[in-house]
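This part of the workshop introduces the protein records we will be handling. Getting from the letters to the tokens is the skill we practise here. An example says more than a description, so a record of this kind follows:
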Amino acid sequence: MKPQTFGSTVVHKLVEIDRLALDDDWLFPEIDPKAVDENRDWLGPNLIEPGARRLYLSFHSYVIRTPTLNILIDTCNGNHKQRPTMPAWHMLDLPYLEKLKAIGLEPEDIDIVMCTHLHADHVGWNTKLENGQWVPTFTKARYVMSRAEYKHFERLHNAKPAEPVTRGAFQDSVLPVVEHGRELLLDAGDTIDERLSGEVELEAAPGHSPAGLNLMLKSGGRRGCFCGDVIHHPIQCAMPDLSNLADYDRKQAVVTRRRVLDRSIDEGVELFTGHFPDPTVGRFKRLGDVYRFRFES
């Protein structure tokens, strides 16, 4: 994705994992076995592995550089995190912070870390390992999280389940932020910072997670929606009711997804997707009762 300009605000994509191929029926357990081949022509080899039924996902963050604040949206998987149930995320050692430096920012330059939701692949770089302890990576930032979502996972964690909450991410990537007093628990409609009033808004995006939040950016005559995991892969355009294996409330996830897609069409809102490979950003169009995605950058 090329840097995107919203007036005096610039959006960069910060890639952790460029492309990861995942089996279609692992990512979407209810998918029709014929679906990948039926949609292969319009999706192409950048989105479907040639000769296989594996779908490519990207793992990336967005950096929004406004004249007053730097916002980092979703921090991917993180380094040195124990994720034995997901080998592709387990004990990574990737140059994520070096890539941040390449766009002219150090961790201490980040003012706000926005967590659209609290799943492991969206909060990993919230913390780093320092002297055997997990500490906030972005030392001067406030970490925005959905109040309801945090409380949901806190209750699960406090119940001491046999399996760690969100593959262990709640313990190593969320709780240390709270322990250091860096969290900012908000609800849809709340203001992240008064300096961003009228430019940045939070909206409810429940379904994939209990109480996720989208970030809406409006400036310079453009509108963008940073939509986390509202939609995982463009194949869901052809099957918008298709559920992801991690969806918390499948029916609500479909309602949220269709609402976001329809608004993209009806109001010209650009989608900054959470897992689409490059060029990542674009808009939707209707094709009868389903959709297609048009990459724009």
Q: What stands out?
A: The longest strand covers residues 9-23. The chain has one domain: 4-295. Residues 161 and 261 are 36 Å apart (CA to CA). The chain is about 20% helix and 30% strand.
